[in-house]
């Protein structure tokens, strides 16, 4: 696969620049069985800085199951996932620091405000919380005026926008997104497309699922 220029991101496996690895996410011979059913077998692909994968397939094909394997939340029956050449089973902590996973459930604290949620995530992610930057990010995703409302008062689409704001503040190298376009209006779809394009341009890696046609030429397609 093509490597798109110099990556902005470096993998956080070490603090020493001399030992930084070339960014990649690679799947080798991955099998997935759920219940009695073989969902996919002997899956191979590799992604480098600035590349992405759009995983498609009918309901129940195994898209979410694949994403969970890529995050390390579940272990494969056989095969492995490597981050910058190292199995994620061996480098789970450093891998976790480099990955942002957005699943079906929004994982927001309903009783905290939008701003407080981002502050909470910054603490969990071990990054410095900057109020001005965070407010600018909320504004970018049309949440100005909603910053201090409890998340329980936000609509489903507004919660998704809040998660997009998190994507900009978290600065993870690898984004793994399960149906990120679901529930978005046309404006939010454009905001998300731009955000994904930015991530790829900065040398990040994206794996996402969804049934939409996406206008991102850097995304390859995997049909399960
Ligand atoms: N923990 C589990 N135990 C047993 N079967 C499971 C488990 N998790 C998922 N499955 C089954 O695995 C199959 C794939 O599920 P998965 O959620 O990966 O599909 P999907 O492609 O993401 O579907 P959708 O488009 O509906 O979100 C389904 O048939 C599902 O019932």
UniProtKB/TrEMBL annotation:
Keyword set, alphabetical order: ATP-binding, Cell inner membrane, Cell membrane, Cytochrome c-type biogenesis, Membrane, Nucleotide-binding, Translocase, Transport
Record carries keyword Hydrolase: no
InterPro entries listed in its UniProt record: AAA+_ATPase, ABC_transporter-like_ATP-bd, ABC_transporter-like_CS, ABC_transptr_haem_export_CcmA, P-loop_NTPase
Gene Ontology molecular-function annotations: ATP binding; ATP hydrolysis activity; transmembrane transporter activity
GO biological process entries: cytochrome complex assembly
Transmembrane portions of the chain: none
Domain of life: Bacteria
Keyword Phosphoprotein in annotation: no
UniProt xrefs under Pfam families: ABC_tran
Domain annotation ABC transporter: ranges: 25-222
PANTHER family: ABC TRANSPORTER I FAMILY MEMBER 1
The protein, known as: Heme exporter protein A
Organism for this UniProt entry: Polynucleobacter meluiroseus
């Amino acid at each position: 696969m093509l490597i798109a220029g110099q990556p902005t991101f470096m993998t956080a496996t070490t603090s020493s620049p001399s030992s930084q690895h070339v960014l990649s996410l690679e799947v080798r011979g991955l099998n997935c069985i759920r219940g009695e059913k073989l969902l996919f077998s002997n899956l191979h692909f590799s992604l480098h800085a600035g590349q992405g994968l759009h995983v498609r397939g009918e309901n129940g094909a195994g898209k979410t199951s694949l994403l969970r394997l890529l995050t390390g939340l579940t272990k494969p029956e056989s095969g492995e996932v490597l981050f910058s050449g190292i199995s994620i089973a061996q480098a789970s902590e450093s891998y976790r620091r480099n990955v942002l996973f957005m699943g079906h459930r929004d994982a927001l604290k309903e009783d905290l405000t939008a701003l407080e949620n981002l502050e909470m995530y910054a603490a969990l992610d071990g990054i410095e919380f900057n109020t001005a930057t965070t407010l600018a990010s909320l504004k970018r995703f049309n949440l100005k005026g909603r910053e201090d409302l409890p998340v329980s008062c936000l609509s489903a689409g507004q919660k998704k926008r809040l998660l997009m704001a998190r994507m900009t503040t978290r600065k993870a190298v690898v984004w793994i997104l399960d149906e990120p376009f679901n529930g978005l209006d046309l404006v939010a779809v454009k905001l998300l497309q731009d955000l994904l394009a930015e991530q790829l341009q900065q040398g990040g890696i994206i794996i996402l699922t969804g049934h939409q046609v996406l206008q991102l030429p850097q995304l390859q397609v995997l049909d399960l």
